[in-house]
Design brief:
The complex is a heterodimer of chains A (about 250) and B (about 250).
Chain A lengths: L3 E12 L2 E12 L3 E5 L6 H8 L7 E6 L2 E2 L4 H7 E4 L11 H11 L5 H11 L15 H13 L5 E5 L7 H16 L3 E6 L2 H7 L2 E6 L2 E6 L1 H6 L15 H9 L6
Parallel strand pairs in A: 3-8, 3-9, 6-7, 7-8
Antiparallel strand pairs in A: 1-2, 1-4, 4-5, 9-10
Helix pairs in contact in A: 3-4, 3-5
Chain B lengths: L1 H19 L2 H21 L10 H17 L1 H12 L2 H6 L5 H29 L8 H28 L3 H6 L1 H6 L15 H8 L2 H13 L7 H27 L1
Helix pairs in contact in B: 1-6, 2-3, 2-6, 3-6, 3-7, 3-11, 4-6, 4-7, 6-7, 7-11, 7-12, 11-12
The chains are: A alpha/beta (about 250), B mainly alpha (about 250).
Chain lengths: ~250, ~250
């Protein structure tokens, strides 16, 4: 097996007259966090949907864990998990039932045990027997991500995982993503939040105008710019620093 | 087998939806029950339809109305799954694709069966009596199940294609109205020629007449075959378009 978890070559996709992807190329290595950066409508979700077998491309090729997304889609589905832009949880079921459902569908041997483990890991044990539509945005997102971890897929797609979350919930998601990558999971995340890419990603690719216009580590990207000028400015706390200081990190809950 | 296992798991999920929100069964029951009460106790006395109690004449039509309003929830549940991203989640997992639709279809069969049983029980309290034997009841069950299956696959189409909640459930209204222009409430004999031609040649009349004959132990003519052809025909056509709509989104 190679070191490459996701390989995308000259990927093309149009919706009627809108050419969204005009030849996208990038590789994601095993165990790394790769951020696909782009503004709204740049084609981030389209790329993710093609890689997670939800959408067929018009041209080019893409493979995940060595399996072609179009010809071996069943194999691809066994190795991936998708966390879409909006928390895809069943609101009528409880948190635990949601996890058990996914575990059964993935054919996990002990569905209940897996569910319990993930509930504790994501701080949802107290809310386990409550209906998911009573969860806050942050809790629903945590459940959503927990559901994506059932069956420990090798590759996880996170499509704008922190959109619509408050700063605390966002930090929690970041922590989770880091932990996942430390555990060897390959993560492809999309974001329009520059700080998110900066904080999390091992490597970053910028999707713009249907193509990857730049990619590399943060340092490599920085080198594309003229050397930094040193300026002295007073360090003001950002509103986020203030908010977090006042609210207090209440045990990461 | 994977497809059976997945269907069973997903069927369990949507049955939970129904048990947790009994309002979906209650709202389905209100209209047909109100109509049954209205027609038996208000209009029924003035309607001359056959020789026995009017409730015996009316019941089959009421059951079809209940089923027609029940299947709207299938469209609604599919729409919600699509909108909440659960479809995308299931489709990106190693889940047998057809299980996702069949689970909803089976749920519709079971929940409509519950509505039908409740209405029959209330009709019994209102004086409905049937001389039908086990075989006839089985036939009635079979025809109603086929009718439910046909309309459910029909409901899958707007469930998969609608752009709004309203759109997903609006298609059921004409279906609920169809029994009024049939032999469900009054015999077709007194209707003006044009209406009568429509009434006698639309599926509800054949199905209602068949169910009524079976329940009242009357001889059954050709209408049972016409009823079956309608049910199977609608199922096949609706299934074809439903699967086509489904392929477009997966």
């Amino acid at each position: 097996m190679t070191d490459v978890a996701i390989q995308v070559n000259d990927l093309r996709k149009s919706f009627k007259d809108a050419h969204v992807l005009k030849g996208v190329d990038f590789d994601v290595r095993r165990g790394e966090i790769f951020a696909l950066l782009g503004s709204n409508g740049a084609g981030k979700t389209t790329t993710i949907n093609i890689l997670s077998t939800l959408l067929k491309s018009d041209g080019g090729s893409a493979s995940v864990c060595g399996f072609d997304v179009q010809r071996q889609s069943e194999k691809v589905r066994e190795s991936i998990s998708l966390t879409g832009q909006f928390a895809a949880v069943d609101g009528i079921l409880t948190g635990r039932e949601n996890l058990v459902l996914i575990a059964k569908l993935r054919g996990v041997a002990d569905a209940r045990k897996t569910a319990d483990m993930l509930l504790s890991r994501f701080g949802l044990r107290d809310a386990a027997n409550r209906r998911a539509d009573a969860y806050s945005g942050g809790m629903a997102r945590r459940l959503d991500i927990a559901m994506s971890l059932v069956g420990t897929p090798a590759v996880i797609f996170l499509d704008e995982p922190t959109t619509g979350l408050d700063p605390e919930a966002r930090l929690e998601v970041w922590k989770t993503v880091k932990e996942l990558a430390d555990g060897g999971t390959t993560i492809l995340l999309t974001t329009q939040h520059l700080e998110e890419a900066e904080r999390l990603a091992d490597r970053i690719a910028i999707l713009h105008g249907g193509k990857i216009i730049a990619s590399g580590t943060l340092d490599e990207l920085k080198k594309l710019f003229p050397p930094a000028e040193v300026e002295y400015i007073e360090k003001q706390p950002s509103l986020e620093d203030i908010f977090l200081a006042i609210v207090g990190q209440t045990g990461g809950k | 087998m994977k497809i059976l296992h997945d269907t069973e798991v997903l069927f369990g999920r949507s049955m939970r939806h129904i048990l947790r929100s009994p309002d979906t069964i209650i709202t389905v029951l209100i209209t047909p029950l109100a109509m049954m009460l209205l027609f038996v106790y208000v209009f029924g006395g003035a309607i001359r339809a056959g020789t026995g109690a009017y409730v015996n004449y009316l019941l089959p039509g009421i059951l079809l109305i209940a089923i027609a309003s029940g299947i709207a929830y299938t469209a609604l549940r599919l729409f919600t799954d699509r909108q909440k991203g659960l479809f995308a989640r299931f489709h990106s997992m190693p889940v047998a694709r057809s299980s996702i639709l069949w689970a909803h279809v089976l749920t519709s069969l079971v929940s409509n069966a519950i509505s039908v049983v409740v209405i029959v029980l209330i009709a019994l309290l209102m004086g409905f009596r049937s001389g039908a034997g086990v075989l006839e009841w089985l036939e009635v069950t079979g025809i109603l199940a086929l009718f439910t299956l046909a309309l459910t696959w029909l409901a899958v189409i707007p469930g998969l294609t609608a752009k709004s909640v309203e759109g997903a459930s609006a298609f059921a209204y004409p279906l609920i109205f169809l029994p009024f222009i049939s032999s469900a409430f009054v015999p077709t004999a007194t209707m003006p020629a044009v209406v009568r031609v429509f009434a006698e040649n639309q599926p509800v009349t054949a199905i209602v007449d068949t169910v009524r004959s079976l329940l009242n132990s009357e001889p059954i003519g050709n209408e049972i075959w016409i009823a079956l052809v309608w049910c199977v025909g609608i199922t096949v056509v609706a299934y074809f378009f439903a699967v086509r709509a489904y392929k477009r989104i997966v």
